[in-house]
Specification:
The chain is mostly helical. Helix 2 packs antiparallel against helix 11, helix 5 runs antiparallel to helix 6 and helix 6 runs antiparallel to helix 7. It has one domain. It has 16 helices and 2 strands.
């Protein structure tokens, strides 16, 4: 079994995790914006997310001979370590609930703001727990100023969303007035009914195909315009124009609470700070804990999304397991997202076991990556106001400072 024990290796793993964990939400968002049902996407994602944990356990977790205090993966499966296993599985459950919630929140408040708020809450709450669980191996005088930067980012993230939402409302209002001036009352009617078009025949990858809406689909609108927002609404699976902003933010905060708990639970699973294991039973190695963590994440994700196929939420159309099996549009992207998230979480835990889980929470700066994809792929914040751009710049600056500070607080776990 291979273990990362030096600080340099741990930081390299954290940076790799930051890249992977910041990219997979963009892939999932891409599919939702193309109209693929989030239930279908999450079922595909869950398969490869578990596959990543199995691959890590069967390769890195099996390298070399098993040792009494550090057994390899197969040896540890047969040991009496269920208290630690339950902590690992509890972490997987709350992570699965958080990931599932963010999949819906992305549609309501955007990829960037969702990741900012949920990740910042994870650091503020989860890092504090991990600091004390890790017997304070991270330097508090450096660590907690970094946590403060994430807390500031929460406030800035909320302000960015509020400002951008106001910008979008103004764009739609201006477009409505323009259409009303040129087409009588048809313009207002067209815009006010945009959120009620779920019944219009759609192509799940190409959006609305009905010729009566040709004025919005003859050519692709420029990102950031009112026409772009309307085209996007026609395509996406979750209709959000006219929805309650508080609903989206509530989902985000629920996800943030879930994310705050998964890393401390994993910490307890691998280090047994509460002394729940019997005397002589070795602690769970990170690869075994990650396997159980991913199994519970898989079970919750599969179970809830099969339920949502038949009992959908947030106005989504119902589906069936047969329809899911036949839905191949975008499946390769959903499978890729699962692999990215699985390996990203694995690398985060490997780095945290070496340098402290509080420092490893630096990967929660993944909004740096997600915002990049949000701007490049989805046109978020295009043609927004100067106030929105200033707030966005401040938010990103806080994340850059926080990443540097948290990584600087890295310690070294005694083995």
């Amino acid at each position: 079994m291979y273990l990362v024990e030096d600080k340099g290796g741990a930081i390299a793993l954290m940076l790799a995790a930051l890249s992977f964990l910041g990219t997979w939400p963009a892939v999932m968002t891409l599919l939702e914006r193309r109209g693929r049902l989030p239930q279908h996407t999450y079922l595909d994602y869950s398969l490869t997310n578990l596959l990543a944990a199995v691959l890590i356990a069967l390769t890195i977790g099996q390298i070399g001979d098993s040792k009494p205090n550090m057994p390899n993966f197969f040896t540890q499966l047969a040991q009496d370590n269920w208290p630690s296993v339950l902590f690992a599985m509890a972490g997987g459950i709350v992570l699965s609930l958080g990931n599932l919630a963010t999949q819906y929140a992305w549609a309501y408040v955007g990829l960037s703001v969702t990741e900012v708020i949920s990740s910042s809450m994870t650091v503020v709450i989860g890092t504090t727990f991990n600091y004390f669980l890790d017997d304070r191996i991270n330097r508090a005088e450096i660590l907690f100023p970094g946590v403060g930067c994430f807390l500031i980012a929460v406030c800035l993230g909320s302000a960015v969303h509020s400002s951008n939402a106001a910008d979008n409302e103004k764009k739609l209002s201006d477009s409505s007035n323009k259409n009303q001036n040129t087409n009588g009352t048809n313009g207002d009617k067209e815009l006010s009914n945009v959120s009620n078009r779920a019944g219009v025949p759609q192509d799940l990858e190409d959006g609305v195909s009905d010729v009566s809406y040709a004025n919005f689909n003859d050519e692709k609108a420029k990102a950031g315009t009112a026409e772009f927002l309307i085209q996007l609404e026609n395509k996406r699976s979750i209709k959000v124009i006219g929805s309650n902003t508080c609903l989206g933010l509530s989902i985000v905060f629920f996800a943030g609470v879930c994310f705050s708990l998964f890393s401390p639970a994993f910490n307890l699973a691998t280090n047994d700070q509460w002394h729940t294991l019997k005397e002589g039973v070795p602690h769970l190695v990170v690869y075994t804990a990650f396997f159980y963590f991913s199994v519970s994440c898989f079970v919750v994700g599969i179970g809830l999304n099969i339920w949502f196929l038949y009992k959908p939420v947030l106005g989504l159309p119902s589906s069936s397991f047969t329809a899911y099996l036949k839905d191949w549009k975008g499946r390769h992207w959903a499978l890729l997202a699962g692999l990215l998230c699985g390996f990203g979480n694995g690398f985060q835990f490997m780095g945290g076991q070496a340098a402290g889980y509080a420092a490893a929470d630096a990967v929660q700066a993944l909004p740096l990556v997600s915002t990049f994809w949000g701007v490049v792929l989805f046109g978020e914040y295009r043609r927004s106001s100067r106030r929105t751009y200033v707030l966005l710049a401040g938010m990103l600056l806080m994340f850059i400072v926080a990443v540097a500070v948290l990584m600087a607080s890295s310690g070294h776990r005694k083995t």
